[in-house]
Amino acid sequence: MCGIIGWITSEKSNISKEVFREGIEELLLLSETRGKEASGICCLDSKKIRIYKDCVRAKQITKTKEFKNIFEEMTSSSGRMIMGHARMVTNGDQDNSQNNQPVVRNDLVCIHNGIIVNDLKLWKDNADLPRQAEVDTEVFLALMEKYNYQDNLLEAFKECLHDVEGSLSIALIDRTSNYVLLYTNTGSLYAVRSKDKKMIMFASEKYIIEQTVKKKRLDCYFAIPSIKKINPQNGLLIDITNCRVKRFNSSEVCEKIKKGDVERDIVDSSTKTSRKEECIPRINYHGEISEVEKLLQVDTSKINKLRRCTKCLLPETFPGISFNEQGVCSICKDYKRKKLKGENALKQLLQENETRESEYDCIVPLSGGRDSCYMIHYMVKEMGARVVAYTYDWGMVTDLARRNIQRMCSELGVEHILVSADIGRKRKNIQLNVKAWLKHPQLATVPLFMAGDKQFFYYAQLLKHQMHIDNIIFGMNSLEETQFKVRFASHRKTGENGIHYDLPTSGKLDLVMAYAKEFAKNPAYINRSLYDSFLGYLSYYFLPKDYVHFFDYILWDQKTVENVIINEYGWEKAKGTDETWRIGDGTAPFYNYIYYKMAGFTEFDTFKSNQIREGIVDRETALASLETSNRVSPQDFIWYCETIGINPIETLKTINRQKTLYDK
């Protein structure tokens, strides 16, 4: 999830402080793509461990006096190491310095990329271990103490691995030892040894090391072809005095490494920094959930009286819909059933990447949702493909989705590359667009709430280029297409199979004109989010879309999908709903309530209608479950409002005042 970096120099290395500092700065700046909400560094030399961290992005921390002082005060008489962290916040508020990384607990200091998903259970099971912070990483250090790491560092580390669930890429040091321990259970950690074997550099991604070596002209020290991935369930134990490396595996008998006899002080110069303007604070709704639940109501008696297609479930309020004499809708009339291409065709496609300069067959976007999680399981376990997982986190990926991502990657040993937006800024942009919408609510402009996530496509293409990989395999399920989001604005049909980004050029221009008219009616949309929305529009509609859709090849069966991910991986379901679709998308409950309240249907109507057309479910069964599926969880609605900083009660009152399409 986050980005970790480091550079170790032995006592015999002759690297200057200036070059060392510039290299660390570049490593940190390149790691910003993995987290911009906090950052920090740790410097270990013969005398001290100096720490500085703050709730600012790496770009800002490298400009501080405290950052520069760490390098000025650093000695090199017996080796030294700097390790750094760019954080995307998951567990623990970044305004509390203890939650930011490096994490310190007594004599231990570490930086961690990933999520320990069972941290609450571990604290409960080990009540004798006092907890000092909220960040999940701390439990690992507490367990190291429990297992007496002073007697055998590696053995204690291995015991911790048995207890911990989730993803773990970590760099760990003890203030009395000259060892640095690197380990990953996903393969999201790379290292390179210098040509003279006196230095080692490491980072969460190969690309980060490559670019640092190139930009800072460090090729006289490091050879790019020598950058190696630390394989899943493997680690390195590095002596900083001479950069000698001991390799270990989590399942092997560990060599005895005792606590050292070096005396170092830990000096933490971190300061608590107030949030910047773009890092909007979450509001805390202190009202009763029942109050929100009371307002999350629609007139189902009127909705149930709507004319619906006799073949599917789409109602008469669906934009652009028409019915023939038999009552069958125009969407059903135009629909063509899917024909699977088959696993062999997918295998043949992947084989074409073998001629390229890459250790991977494909990039697999992983949202934490049910379909992408099943897809990565199938690609690795059933097809034996070499995959790298990719996630774009724009601030509306829920903690539940993040935990599920880490479960899959750790269990499968899959490298996970996360690109994190400036989440505070993205959430502020959403807030501005939602507030603008509430001034003049229109169904046509609801998609503006999601405009910020469309740069997902840009970074997918960028990663494909950086890693020299031919194929991006998407888990988008064609059953999920939702034509109504575009149709409410431009009354245009979407492209082939209902894929929005397949709109013809004329359709894309119509969409721009439709939004321009809405902006003219409601100038509140003309705010700082406009640039971000425009970039999202370009990424979605104009970037090359030579993607492979997994479920065009492999049969989608909901029972199989859910059975595999839940029973084999402990995939976590959302509370308050039996549905497993969209539960990792924090925006979905908000916009689905708007569509349900104002138009009388949601994405579940279109999803279930497509299932009917494909013969997956009969109409009666789908219709009977529709009202339950469309019900929005009050907790999820509150989460969205709190996260973007709006009041859920006032927001619901505004939505509920709007005239509906089914009022007659």
Structural features, described:
The protein is of the alpha+beta class and 664 residues long. The protein has two domains: 3-260, 4-Layer Sandwich (Glutamine Phosphoribosylpyrophosphate, subunit 1, domain 1); 289-656, HUPs (Rossmann fold, 3-Layer(aba) Sandwich), CATH 3.40.50. It is built from 24 helices and 19 strands. It has an eight-stranded mixed beta sheet, covered by helices on one side. A six-stranded antiparallel beta sheet has the order 5-6-7-8-12-13, with helices on one face.
- Could you tell me the strand content as a percent range? 5-15%
Give the CA-based shape. elongated
CATH level-4 homologous superfamily of the largest domain: HUPs
Structural class: alpha+beta
Count of helix runs: 24
CATH class membership of the largest domain: Alpha Beta
Outline the biggest β-sheet: 8 strands, mixed
Question: Number of folding domains?
Answer: 2
Please name the CATH architecture of the largest domain: 3-Layer(aba) Sandwich
Q: Using DSSP, what is the number of strands?
A: 19
Distance between the termini: 50 Å
Q: Main attributes?
A:
664 residues; alpha+beta; Glutamine Phosphoribosylpyrophosphate, subunit 1, domain 1; Rossmann fold; 2 domains; six-stranded antiparallel β-sheet; 15% strand; elongated
